[in-house]
Amino acid sequence: MTLIKSISGIRGTIGGKMGDNLTPIDAVTFAAAYGTWIKNQRQKENYRVVVGRDARISGEMIQSLVMQTLVGLGIHVIDLGLSTTPTVEVAVPMEHADGGIILTASHNPKQWNALKLLNAKGEFLNGEEGAIILAIAEQGNISFADVDNLGNITKNQAYIDLHIDEVLDLDLVNVKAIENAKFKVVVDGVNSTGGIAIPLLLERLGVHPVKLYCEPNGHFPHNPEPLKEHLTDLSNAVVKERADFGIVVDPDVDRLAFMDEKGEMFGEEYTLVACADYVLSKTPGNTVSNMSSTRALSDVTKQHGGNYEASAVGEVNVVELMKKNNAVIGGEGNGGIIYPELHYGRDALVGVALFLSLLAEKKMSVSALRASYPNYFMSKKKIELTPSLDVDGILKSMEARYSHEKLTTIDGVKIDFSDSWVHLRKSNTEPIIRIYTEAPSQADADTLADRIISEIKAIANI
């Protein structure tokens, strides 16, 4: 089993030995380190931290441990209970809190959970801040509050509704046009908190939601990563219900994918492309995505007269470059929409509202909308890591092998060919090497990925 300690938090599998898995002791240790960091850097009398969780089976246990640890440090906790990652991000500044913790392992299977850590802006910590917290956890130099200065816990379960209010108040969300379109949409909430938030949002927009796996019990009915091969039931439901399209989110609702009226994937990469197309048509400007995202975003941005730039993979890196370039929208090709008018975080609720606004104004089918964008195809593959595998050495060898091509090495190795690209990098969230490719056809993308994997295996003798 696995425990991954990184600058973005701590992620692991439930059960097993302390230090090798996400055990109660590990949850307490890292919650205490985070709370200590909050107190050290804020230097004030009263501290407040917002805590929410997705619907994972282990969520209630981990959240209780985390909250009571913060209480023991003298920190007041705002308990959102079942929530979404973007909802917690929105709640932190609204509560004037010092930070936030989301208990979720995003797209990982049900045996995983994680502590995702936020700063006072409701944004993910940067590398320097994360490193300090890891050092505090390692050193164990943590001092708890005395009995007269313990924190307390205040429950507030209104924040999903408040989050929806903030989305509907955005200037570019065309509520009237969406209501008039009378859409019917199937929602796959993967039995997590998207099953609460997305139908509520749709109902507020006058959309008829057909619920599929929207019971937040943590028993994921399929692999929770919103990829085509996991979404047969959604495809069948869209066709059977004669719906306008389908929506699927990951367990913590920061990734968003659509399915067209024919039951075909719109393409997870094209979630950001479509939302950016809409935003840029109203507010021309720049865009940012990470290096593993489709070239189609660059194409659409240039069509609207803006500039596109790519960051290293990771939400904090995308946000940093978005701020630097004054991007009007950005995100990640895994279906993560970051719209700064609301907050600097991936947000499926904002993505749904922007997509519906675009569709309502264009008055076209989802399949026709997809056909209007540049056509690229991606392959996303991986190689499982073993202790003997020298990942850095492998990447250096691939860099040398393709030194005659356009290379980017700020995050692994990206090789840009004339009509395709490949990005190789070690995952921040799983013990794997990711191999992403993009080409003019699916066959070309798959062939390129398989060729690169064969080269890696030859280099590593595996």
CATH architecture of the largest domain: 3-Layer(aba) Sandwich
Fourth-level CATH superfamily of the largest domain = Alpha-D-Glucose-1,6-Bisphosphate, subunit A, domain 3
- What would you call the shape? globular
Q: State the end-to-end distance.
A: 22 Å
Number of strands: 20
Helix content: 25-40%
Which regions are unreliable across 5 or more consecutive residues at pLDDT < 50?
A: none
Total count of domains:
3
Write down the overall mean pLDDT: 95
Summed up, the helix count is 15
Strand content: 15-25%
- CATH fold category name of the largest domain: Alpha-D-Glucose-1,6-Bisphosphate, Chain A, domain 3
The side-by-side strand order for the widest beta sheet comes to 1-2-6-5-3-4-7
Tell me about the largest β-sheet.
7 strands, mixed
CATH class division of the largest domain: Alpha Beta
- Radius of gyration (CA) equals 22 Å
Secondary structure category: alpha/beta
Enzyme class: isomerase
Pfam family, one: PGM_PMM_II
EC number: 5.4.2.10
Cofactor: Mg(2+)
